[in-house]
Amino acid sequence: MKSFKTPKTKVQRLPSRGHYDEETIFRILDAGFLCHVAFEIDHQPYIIPTAYGRNQNTLFLHGSAKNRMLKHLKNGAPAAISITHLDGLVLARSTFNSSMNYRSVVILATGKEVTQKDEKIEALRLITEQIIPQRWEEARIPDDDELKATMVLSFQIDEASAKIRTGPPGDKASDYALDIWAGVLPLNIQYAEPVNDPKLRAGIAVPKSVLQAIQNGIT
Amino acid sequence: MKSFKTPKTKVQRLPSRGHYDEETIFRILDAGFLCHVAFEIDHQPYIIPTAYGRNQNTLFLHGSAKNRMLKHLKNGAPAAISITHLDGLVLARSTFNSSMNYRSVVILATGKEVTQKDEKIEALRLITEQIIPQRWEEARIPDDDELKATMVLSFQIDEASAKIRTGPPGDKASDYALDIWAGVLPLNIQYAEPVNDPKLRAGIAVPKSVLQAIQNGIT
Questions:
Q1: If DSSP codes are grouped into helix, strand and coil, which group holds residue A27?
Q2: Has the ipTM of the complex gone over 0.85?
């Protein structure tokens, strides 16, 4: 199985939590749609939250053609892209051993602009479907002017690592005798009831994409 | 009122979504406890999710004394710290005008190690209380060995920006006639039922901190 482990992506602290296989990394990517992208200009790091899409080992970002981050990254400047799912608070008897349960991925990659029209539309479809499956078929898809106003970058995933923590707290042996509650407080992300656009025309029902998103929740 | 706007933190795209005042920025910081920290080594950006605490205009991060990021940042290397709350999917009639509702802050700052014992304990208390209020009083707080094994960095917040989007989608005038649903799908983060540590001694009830966290939810 393909491994994304490299000297730069090897998990340094608590190496037992590190994973580098495609399956684990893609599963974490597919469970979300929001990433944080870090880049640097003149040794000043910047960081921006944005949506992503994935096809095999390619990650796509998009934004305005005037977007400063995308304009910087399209020329091959290195980026670090992080996807983090917080699953719960791990409350040990000591604050020192308290932690969080999470699944996270960091990708180190360089961007390349997607300019070919079909590829650009397909990348935008992947991003939309990552956020809310089936929406692409329901909505009006981009016209030529909108495509021109949108920049899409692709990042090949070659260097990456996942970090996962699950399960109960691990306390110091002597702490188990303490009269202190310990356990996990799990955290769930759910969609609430959809809110119609105040300008929605009469007789248009909440669509399949939204109903399914509510049913499936966010993992 | 204090402004954190600087040339580097001025919001470039959609400037109307940018905010720089202390009140807005602190409110967004106080609504969460997880940030993403970006830093760079030899022009390679890195990014790591971690917990934070705040006291006035100082942000605290902590971790193992062996943590590579903290060791790098304690010497004054610049960091970018991002806190993002996703509030909902904004589903316009077109994919082009679809968006997200969110509250996010980016801080550009340099770290400084907190070495004085009382200050270090106070910073750790602030981080714990940021994650789950009242837990510090319930749990066993760090002893000298644990303090030694923990590194705490402080970041003075001088350069920062917030970006906020709220409300319904904004569609292109001609799109309002389309037979397509539009609206907002709000997103909620909630705690589920706490899971006792399998090694919990009999007779220890779920504590106040956990009950209150469940009741208050995450904003």
A1: helix
A2: yes
C-alpha B22/C-alpha B44 separation (Å) is 31
DSSP line for chain B: --B---TTTS--SSGGGEE-BHHHHHHHHHT--EEEEEEEETTEEEEEEEE-EEETTEEEEEEETT-HHHHHHTTT-EEEEEEEEEEEEEE-SBSTT-EEEEEEEEEEEEEEE--SHHHHHHHHHHHHHHHSTTHHHHSBPP-HHHHHTEEEEEEE--EEEEEEE-SS----GGGGGSS---EEEEEEEEE---EE-TTPPTT-PPPHHHHHHHHH-B-
Whole-angstrom distance, CA of residue A100 vs CA of residue B131 = 10
B138 has a chain A CB within 8 A of its CB:
yes
- C-alpha closest to that of B100 among A47, A207, A36, A50: A50
Residues of chain B found within 8 Å of residue A148, distances taken between Cβ atoms: none
Chain B CB within 8 Å of residue A164 CB:
no
pLDDT tens digits for B25-73? 999 999 999 999 999 999 999 999 999 999 999 999 999 999 999 999 9
Give the domains, in start order, of chain A with CATH numbers: 15-170+181-189 (2.30.110.10)
Q: What are phi and psi of B77, to 5 degrees?
A: -65, 140
**pTM, two decimal places:** 0.95
Determine whether the interchain pair B191/A192 forms a contact, defined as Cβ–Cβ distance below 8 Å.
no
Helices first, then strands: H and E counts in chain A: 6, 11
Radius of gyration of the CA atoms of chain B, in A: 20
- Is any Cβ of chain B less than 8 angstroms from the Cβ of A202? no
Report residue B162: phi and psi, to 5°.
-115, 150
Strand duo A34-41 + A78-91: pairing:
antiparallel
